[in-house]
Amino acid sequence: xxxxxxxxxxxNKKIVICIIILLVIICLLLIKGIFFSxxxxxxxxxxxxxxxxxxxxxxxxxxxxxINENEKTKSAKMNIHGKIINILYDVNKDVSIDDAKNIASSxxxxxxxxxxxFYDIQFIITKEEEEAKEVQNENGETTTxxxxxxxxxxNSSKDSIVW
Length: 163
What we know:
Helix content: 25-40%
CATH class of the largest domain: Alpha Beta
Largest sheet: 4 strands, mixed
Order of helices and strands: HHEEHHEEEE
Number of domains: 2
Strand content: 15-25%
Number of helices: 4
Number of strands: 6
Distance between the termini: 85 Å
CATH topology of the largest domain: Alpha-Beta Plaits
C-alpha cells in the first residue's frame, strides 16, 4: 500500500519536476537573450536618424582646414564616434586660453545647424610647448601648473560651448 502511494506521488512529482526544469530553462534563455545579446549596435538606438544627417568627409576636411589655416594653431584633427565629434588641435606657444577658445567658437560656425543639432561636439585643445607657471594654493604653498590642455563641450541641444 505504501508503495502504491509512493509511486503515485513520484509520478506526480516527475511531472512537477519536469515543468519546473522546463520553466528554469525558459527563464535562463530569456535572461541570456536580454543580457548577452550579440546582435545590434553598440550604441543601441542612440544613432537612429544618423543616416539622415549629411556630414561628409568634405565637410569635415573644411573644418580641419579652417583650424589649420589659423596662424595660432599647429595641427588639427577630427574623430567621430557615434554621435560625438571630437575636434583636437594644438596651439602655438604664445596663444592664450581665450584665443584658443575663440578658434573653437569660430570653427563651430563652420558646422551646419543640422549637424550641430544632432551631434555632440567636443574640443580638446593642447599646447605642446607650454611652460608651467608657479601659483600659490589656499594653504600658501607654491606649485607649478599648466593652463593646457583645455576641453570644451557643446551638447546637441545647446547653442554654446561649455569650457
